Amino acid sequence: MSIQKRQIGALTVSSLGLGCMGMSEFYGTPDEQGGTDTIHRALDLGVTFLDTADMYGPFTNEQLVGKAIAGRRDEVQLATKFGNERRPDGTMVGINGHPDYVRSACDASLQRLGVDHIDLYYQHRVDKTVPIEETVGAMAELVAAGKVRHLGLSEASAQNIRRAHAVHPITALQTEYSLFTRDLEDEILPTIRELGIGLVPYSPLGRGLLTGAISARRGADDELDRRRSAYFPRFQGEALDANLALVEQVRSIAAEKGCTPGQLALAWVLAQGDDVAPIPGTKRVRYLEENVGATDVELSAGDLAALEQAVPRHAVVGARYGDMTHIDA
Question: Can you give the residue ranges of the NADP-dependent oxidoreductase domain (predicted)?
Fold first, then answer.
């Protein structure tokens, strides 16, 4: 297992990061101890790019991450996000990009994380009611104040990326990208590369589908797993059956390569450029170690072609979300 460093915009990070969301919410039963153990093991292995957000929990995931990195803060490239506003009971208020909220959200995140600065601070979703120049202007004030080192956007359109970057340099764009989700290749990826912005793919394993561990049969923990709800159409009925058939194609190529399907899918994302640093999420040490193994999977041009033939870009059935209105397009 060999974790190299990569440059995303102006920030140097581990080539593979760790998404921490599922430790606290959405993907089955929360597991604070498992999450803490996974973060500690990640740091030991050189996976130092950690991703959280204020909305996860809500609020509890930042607290978990903050406790887990206590005493090891200098090893970590710490990323968190604001903009998906939730109440303590979990109720979703809406997307908020107002400057006053940006400032208060940052202060709250710093307190929960127990740190004096955030390495990469994202606008989690673009607030279509607030000019992005105003939101990023407030984020730039946080940089000037020393509370934040670098700025990022998540799920932003090419147009808004350009507008934001004109206000203050944007270091990274976080968006969904995997063998199952490639629409950003048309306009967004060329735009961020033109501007020198790095790419941080979330759900690089297709929300777990590409690991081969998800089946059409439901398990006991599925009541707490939001992937099994209508909010994720790719996991429903005939769509799931069709997508699992694609996974079988990936599994076949992985067997020939001597790796797992998930490692092969991650290796594909890593092979898309040295400015790409995916953040697969897990709350289990064994899955973290499997993901890290992807960094040692070398893909030839023939391997890449075989994967793209096995999973044609538009072959995946179902939208990314049941409600796409929160995606800036």
Answer: 16-310
Judge whether 150 and 171 are in contact, CB under 8 Å. Answer: yes
Q: Collapsing DSSP states into helix, strand and coil, what is residue 245?
A: helix
Tokens of 294: 């992807």
Question: Which residue has tokens 């507008």?
Answer: 163
Report the number of secondary-structure helices (H) and strands (E) in the chain.
10, 11
DSSP lists the bridge partners of residue 174 as 154, 200
Q: Determine phi and psi for 50, rounding to 5 degrees.
A: -105, 140
Per-residue model confidence (pLDDT) at position 220: 43
Spatial separation of the C-alpha atoms in residues 269 and 257, rounded to whole Å? 16
Q: How many Å apart are CA 105 and CA 62, to the nearest integer?
A: 12
Residue ranges of alpha helices (H) inside 14-78 are: 32-45, 60-69
Q: How far is CA 37 from CA 46, 49, 54, 69, 284, in A?
A: 14, 16, 21, 11, 8
pLDDT in tens, 44-77: 999 999 999 999 999 999 999 999 999 999 999 9
The first and second tokens of residue 120, run together, are 């990469």
Please state the separation of Cα 250 from the chain's center in Å: 21
d(CA 190, CA 28): 36
Question: Which listed residue (56, 121, 122, 202) is catalytic?
Answer: 56
**Alpha carbons 247 and 257: distance in angstroms, whole number:** 15
Task: Please state whether the peptide bond connecting residue 58 to the residue before it is cis, i.e. omega within 30 degrees of 0.
Answer: yes
Question: Using CA atoms, how far apart are residues 60 and 52, in angstroms rounded to an integer?
Answer: 10
SS3 for 309? helix
Find the angle CA(5)-CA(9)-CA(15) to the nearest 5 degrees. Answer: 25
- Asked if 42 contacts 291 with a C-beta cutoff of 8 angstroms, the reply is no
pLDDT of residue 28: 86
What span, in angstroms and rounded, lies between the C-alpha atoms of 201 and 266? Answer: 10
- Whether 56 is a known active-site residue: answer yes
Helix, strand or coil, per DSSP, at residue 38:
helix
> Which two three-digit tokens encode residue 145?
């104040």
Is pTM beyond 0.85? Reply is: yes
Classify 66 as helix, strand or coil: helix
